[in-house]
Amino acid sequence: MDGSNGKTGFFDRLKSGLAKTRKLLLTDVDDIILGSKQIDQALFDELEEALIVADVGPAFTAELIASLQEKVKRKELGSPEVLRKVLRETMREILFTGEAPLRVPPGEVYTIMVVGVNGTGKTTTIGKLAHNLKAEGHEVTLVAADTFRAAAIEQLEAWAKRAQVPLIRQAANADPAAVVYDAVRAAKTGRAGVVIVDTAGRLHTKVNLMEELKKMKRIMGRELPGAPHEVLLVLDATTGQNAIAQARMFTDEIGVTGLILTKLDGTAKGGVVVRIAKELNIPLRYVGVGEQIDDLRPFRAGEFVEALFAENGR
Hints:
By secondary structure, this protein is α/β, with parallel strands linked by helices.
C-alpha cells in the first residue's frame, strides 16, 4: 500500500464503505465459528446460509464449502478459527482473477463507451473517470449521447466543468448516433486522447435501448477501426443480484469489456464483488465509494479483501 494521503484516505473510505457488508458477513461467520465446538455438517449449513445472505453468490459459496470440507478430510482444519482465514484466502484468490485496471495507451485516440441502466450513477461515474484519466496525463473529451434526458446532458456538462475537460453535445432529443459520429470525427482530426461517451440507460423498451447502443457502437467502429476500444458497464452494488442480471444482459447484447461497481459505501451487499469475479468473467476496472470526485479508484483485490476483513478499530 502506498502511504500517500490519497490512497490512505481512499482505503479508509473503502473500509467504512464496506462496514455494512463486513457486519453482515463477518459478524455472522464469527458467531457461527465461536458458537461451534466442532466442525460438522451443521456448521457448514450455517456458514452456507450466512454467505448467501451476504450476496457472495452460490458458486463462490459452493466452492468455499467444498474447499473447507476437503481440508477437514485432510485434517488441515482442526479448529473453527481457521475458517475465517480460509474464507479470506479463497476470496482473495477469486478476486485476483477479476482485477484488471484500465490501460489507456498514450498518444492515440482511445474511445470508451459507458453503458448502464439509469440510477446506477453512470453520468457521475463518467465525470470521476474523466478526472482520474486527466490526472494520469491523458487528454479527455466527454460526449453527451444520452440525448433523451436533458438532465443527463446538463449533469454531464457540470462534471465536464468540474473535471476541466471539453464536452461534445447537441440539443436534447438529437440522434445519439449523430453526436457520437461528430465526436469521433473531431477526435480523429484533432488531438489524440480519451473520448468517453455517455449513453442512455432507459428507452421505451429494453430492445429499443440495445438497438440504440448497437447503432452507436457500429458508427464508432465505422469511423474509427477498433472503436469503441472499451465498453464499460456501470453497476450499482446496492442492487446485488440484479446487478449480475444487468451485466449478463448488456454483455450478451453489446459486449462489455469491463465493469465499474458504484455505491459500495451504501450497501450490505458488497459480497457481490466476489460474485462478479466468480460468475461473470468480466474484468472489474473500478469501484466507487462515495460522492467525492476522487471516490472512483481502480479495483485492487488485495485492498478490497483487506478493507473487508479489517477490524473496526484498525
